[in-house]
């Protein structure tokens, strides 16, 4: 599970039948700087995954998402999916781990 913030949406003009009615979100992964508030934008640098959403997340919402084979677990049928939104965060706290 990884924390991220919704930074946009993806609109498909054509989609596989498994994806009809699906919502797709562009996620900015959140690292320690974003979680602690040191980065005022709240969006980390790096790649921005596209995540399947069935929970109703909106732009700016913090979420938890999973990637890989775990992303397909909620479905009873084969689906070519890389990442899925599994939680909407109302609030969170973050402490830097001690090394």
Automatic annotation (TrEMBL):
The keyword Calcium does not apply. Pfam families: EutN_CcmL. It is found in: Bacterial microcompartment. Keywords: Bacterial microcompartment. Its main location: other. One of its GO terms (cellular component) is bacterial microcompartment. It comes from the Bacteria. This is Ethanolamine utilization protein EutN.
